[in-house]
Amino acid sequence: MSGFSKAAGRLLRADALTLFGLITLVTLLFLGIFGPWLPLGDPSRIAAGPRLGAPSAQFLFGTDELGRDFMPRVVQGIRSTFLLSAIAVTITAVIGSLLGMAAGYLGRFADQAIARGADILFAFPALVAGLLVAAVMGPGQGSAITVISIATLPLFIRVVRSVTLGIAGRGFVTAAEVAGASTLRIMLVHLLPNVMGAVMVQLTYALSIGMIIESALSFLGLGVQPPDASLGSLLRQGSSYLTIAPWMVLSSGAVLSLAIMSVNLVGDAVRDALEPLKGRPLT
Prior knowledge:
The chain has one domain (about 70-275): MetI-like fold, CATH 1.10.3720. α3 (about 70-105) crosses α9 (about 230-240), α5 crosses α6 and α7 packs across α8 (about 185-220). The protein has helices at about 5-10, 15-35, 70-105, 110-125, 125-135, 140-165, 170-180, 185-220, 230-240, 245-275. About 70% of the residues lie in helices and about 0% in strands. The two termini are about 15 Å apart. It is built from ten helices and no strands. It is elongated, with a radius of gyration of 22 Å. It is mainly alpha-helical and about 280 residues long.
């Protein structure tokens, strides 16, 4: 059995808290992906019920100021928040892994240039970067993806660079160099399999960071724009009616908290499952 197969087995035998996080994450992902085809109602239908109606058997999460059923809007918000964060983090994971491996393996000028570039990006607060990006690109989903990528890229570069530095001098890498393997082949064939564990762990944490950033940007009006909804924009919408319709903030806020918590719990389980692989080359 391979190392990653053993890690997957340990993950499946995780404790109750991890299983709760995994079940919650799968449930939220299912709702987000298949929400448009589930019998939950139309999130954009105006006057589906009374304005600012309290939760009831017909409207489980109540209604908003336009009489729209709030539950399908929360489900739509789950899809937007997860999708934008996942796209941004996936793009960043690919770019950050390549840059991190290049910094750790090539050393010297490449290491200094990439590491200092990561430090510069890390110095920018996400919200400040969001304001700058929104000023150039305009508010919207593209701006949210760009800001999440800028905020999470230094994290991937630092982690992958650190792991690569510990692997680059090992015997199997030296043997590949002596055999005449190209730099690209060494990075993709010999280094990448050994940093994938760290990348997967960082990917889960970056996803939770991305969800927080996306929600913050949408709350400020810089992310997802009406009539579409994200969990952050729903929080902004509900904050205007907090004293008379608190269910709007409570429902979207609770779902966002559950989503971030479940991602972090699964990330902890992935880290613990892969921990025995540290120091064991896969090539």
